Description:
The chain is of the alpha/beta class. Helix content is 29%, strand content 15%. It is built from 21 helices and 24 strands. Helix 13 (281-297) packs parallel to helix 14 and helix 18 packs parallel to helix 20. The radius of gyration is 35 Å and the shape is globular. Alpha-D-glucopyranose (GLC) binds at residues 166, 169, 206, 269, 305-306, 375, 441-442.
Amino acid sequence: RLQDKLPKSHKEKHSLVQGNPGFDDADAAENTGSDPGERQESATVKLDTDEEYNQLQPYAGMPKEVLLLYSTRARYRVPREILFWLTVCCMLALLAVTITVIALSPRCLSWWQVSPVYQVYLRSFKDSDGDGVGDLRGIKEKLDHFLELHIKSVWISPFYRSPMKDFGYDVEDFQDVDPLFGSMKDLDDLLAEMHNKGLKLIMDFIPNHTSDRHRWFNLSRNRDPLYEDYYIWADCNVTSPKPNNWVSVFGNSSWTYDDFRGQCYLHQFLKEQPDLNLRNPRVRQEIIDIIHFWLAKGVDGFRMDAVKHILEASHLRDEPQVDPNKPPELITTEWDLYHDYTTSQVGLHDLLREFRAEMDVYSREPGNYRFMATESYDYQEVDKTMMYYGTPLLKESDFPFNFYLLDLPQNISGWWAKHLVDLWMTNMPRGKWPNWVVGNHDRSRISSSAGKIYIRAINMMLLTLPGTPTTYYGEEIGMENINITKSQMQDPSASRDPERSPMQWNGDMNAGFNNKTNITWLPVHPDYQTVNVEAQMKDEGSVLSQYRSLNRLRQSELPFQRGWFCYILADTNVFSYLRELDGHKRAYLMVINFGKQSATTDLSSIQELPADLKVLMSTNPVNDGKLFQKSRILTEPGEGLMMQYSTYTRFHPNHPAECFVSEKACYMETIDILYKC
Ligand code: GLC
Ligand code: MG
């Protein structure tokens, strides 16, 4: 050991080196060749007192000179250098792999793309306090329902303070919760609990109008200098004609005389919903402040209400009549005029893009994308709707709601279903994300208007089309419209009561909507004994169970999320399409019968399909697992089949005109990753 070689004095002072690993005295002697005295001098650490000496710990280190002596020798240097360069190479390789993976990876889908959007009509979802009207605590009690259905995004209709003339779409205070629905604390609790459970909350946002009870309107009527131009005012008086022929969406003139101010104000909806003047920069700033208020609270997105109405032409000229010969006094409905001056005005998209830019500030928080959907019924003018998608450089809404499938009942059939789907797919700007709506609080329930037998087929189509499906509460169990007598009527305008009846949770009193008192603001549908969540949860073949399985499959199977969508066939009865992903073995053929007759579908001309097809899921559970030859696929009216098959032969390369893809990606099976292609 080194100690033996060291001079005595040194040995005494440096017993600390004893046992230091790798300390080979033979080498030491051979290498230094210097005389012991010199070595002693250089290796000595000056320790003057015994006390200092005792404080030294064993193995505290090796004198620098000794260390250097050995470290330069080949047997230490070479491995060290090898290790060093190996580390450098590994780091570089890791960096290269990381960069390649990032460069090759397609963008991840965001939460609003992965899950359907579930619409809660708050008044009707769940009443926690027994006053007959649904509330925020009610929703909180039912959050597990969304988890059961594999739903992550929940849009809640307005809960702002409101006189409820249009059930919350007439807002008295944009920064408060109406006591009927709960308190701000209830909202905070709900939001926290939703986030806990991985759910996202989308709020209704109403930029077009306020309630006539809003503070701003009062100040505007009073000609307060700051608020005078917050609304659209025009000269008129009680007796003289209205400023022009414009009509409200809910019928009759969109002008109402206000005797306090002595002028008419514009309202594109109820007279209790005066239109804001969004041309006034102060009004725009108010809207932006409200956006910030809710996003700062943590709300995950907005459904922008009635956006096509937010600007009107300042010249206030008459709108052209659809029938020029109709006497002007008979011009009373929305359908009597072309809305050249009250909808989709120049500047509308600039405004929405401005709002979006404000929202995007919050989207920069990692994992916290803030979502925007817009509501605009443009009927035949699909290009107007598509404008809300923005441009490649200017973001607007993530999607404008696609209402075309609401027209399915008009002509229910295979080719009509394809026509409506295609209206969106062929007109949607490249690279955008589709979405599908089959019902909402303004439209008859689809199972009533299309016919109850089609609800499963409709849900199946909804959940297998590309893009984001929207589900209006109750569609997952096949709820239908209620019949309303005159005395039960609640909706002052278009009578939208039938589709707003209480959610059917179970077979108990009030269908479980309100289990405290016997009050419900609208009657419960009489079918609630069988059509309810609890009963359908227990039944594997129920509308609800099918919705769940379809949604689970949709989210776990890549071809549904990111794959191609290709038309296969559309006739009087059947609409058939497939979903496939490049590099992915599993593909899905959908055959859905929207007709009135049983159909035998012959797909033998489609070479890319295998000869035999196995049913993974039918809307009629009896047919699950059934094997069909592709030349003879049998479906009953209202039946949908999902057939899974395995192949690497792709349909889309041979039929580009029949196929669409959003967020294109390819799959590499060997390492189970998606890559850009
Ligand atoms: C939207 C809402 C509707 C409301 C109207 C006015 O269309 O969906 O319910 O009555 O805007 O705010
Ligand atoms: Mg307006």
